[in-house]
Amino acid sequence: MRKYLFLFLVFATIACNNNSKTADAPAEKDKDAAVEKKAATAGPGGDCSSLILFHKGAIIEGKSYDGTGKEQGGQVTTITDVKNEGSETIANAKLDMQSVINGKENSRTMNVAYKCNGKALYIDLSELMANFSAFKDAKVEANSLEFPLQLSEGQTLPEASVNVQLNRPGMNMKTTSLYTHRKVEGMENVTTPAGTWSCYRISSSVETSVSMGEGAVQQKMAEVMKQKMPPQKIVMWFAPGFGLVKTETYSGDKLSNHSEIISVKN
User: Fold this and answer.
1) CA 19 to CA 26: how far, in whole Å?
2) Most exposed: 9, 21, 232, 241, by fewest CB within 10 Å?
3) Do the Cβ atoms of 247 and 11 come closer than 8 Å?
4) CATH number assigned to the domain comprising residue 182
5) Which helix (H) or strand (E) segment is 114 a member of?
6) For the whole model, what pTM was predicted?
């Protein structure tokens, strides 16, 4: 479950003030400059329209790699519609995902929605899980992963969690993933194939617990599964005014995978 979630979150948001000098058509340069100017003059609550996810027609492409640099998969996000509902701006997106899990190639297209209230970007984790057939019979409870549009070094961000309960004859399986200790560590420049970006570096811890029931066999199975899902650390490079450009996942001190944006068309 966590691997699917990591692959999605890697590209679910696109951020950072783009300082790249890549070759774009003049019209695209003018459009990007207008977006950056609007973000720079936004009020204390930020501006949802400065985020690339809230630009109808935007196309965002990313790639994911294992700890050795071997490509694991990719994703193309297309923003199909942007609308206002009350105090929120909602962006509907189509995600075309390709991944290699346990040596098997997987393809999937899903539809998701992103929300912004002028102060923060919200990603509904329960909606993400509902897109996978493996969880079609499961009960999923989650809160949104929140990215404030105004960040500062040392800032602590809200925690998030995902609970998935799947009932089967003789086994009631429940997994809980907690995203804790979310902290803004500072600002860094990050270079990807899409350009050079000035980003906030955000770290968080992810710990997953498993319950299989009260029987001795079920408890042993839960312990085995828990050993295969040790606590992990995620580092994301994010900034208000655009989204998420890079993510690294660590098991202990070892890099297990990383993902980055390779193309943005607006």
Assistant:
1) 16
2) 21
3) no
4) 2.40.360.20
5) strand 104-116
6) 0.75
Please answer whether residues 174 and 135 qualify as being in contact, where contact means their C-beta atoms are separated by less than 8 angstroms.
no
Percentage of the chain beyond pLDDT 90 is 36
Q: What are phi and psi of 171, to 5 degrees?
A: -155, 125
**Exposure string over 234-259, b if 16+ CB within 10 A, otherwise e:** bbbbbbbbbbbbbbbbbeeeebebbb
Strands in 37-103 per DSSP E:
59-66, 71-85, 88-101
Q: Residue 179 burial (CB < 10 Å; 0-12/13-18/19+)?
A: buried
Please tell me the distance from the alpha carbon of residue 180 to that of residue 183, in angstroms, as a whole number: 9
pLDDT tier for residue 36 given thresholds of 50, 70 and 90: very low
Q: Are 9 and 75 in contact (CB under 8 A)?
A: no
- The total number of structural domains in the chain stands at 1
What distance in Å separates the CA atoms of residue 29 and residue 198, rounded to the nearest whole number?
18
Residues contacting residue 52 through CB under 8 Å, at least 6 positions apart: 14, 15, 35, 58, 60, 79, 242, 243, 264, 266
- Identify the CA nearest to 162 among candidates 122, 207, 202, 117: 207
The answer to which of 2-16, 67-81, 142-156, 232-246 has the lowest mean pLDDT is: 2-16
Give the Cα separation of 34 and 36 in Å (integer): 5
Full domain range(s) for residue 8: 2-265
14-47 CB burial, b ≥16 within 10 A, e <16: bbbbbebeeebeeeeeeebeebbeebeebeeebb
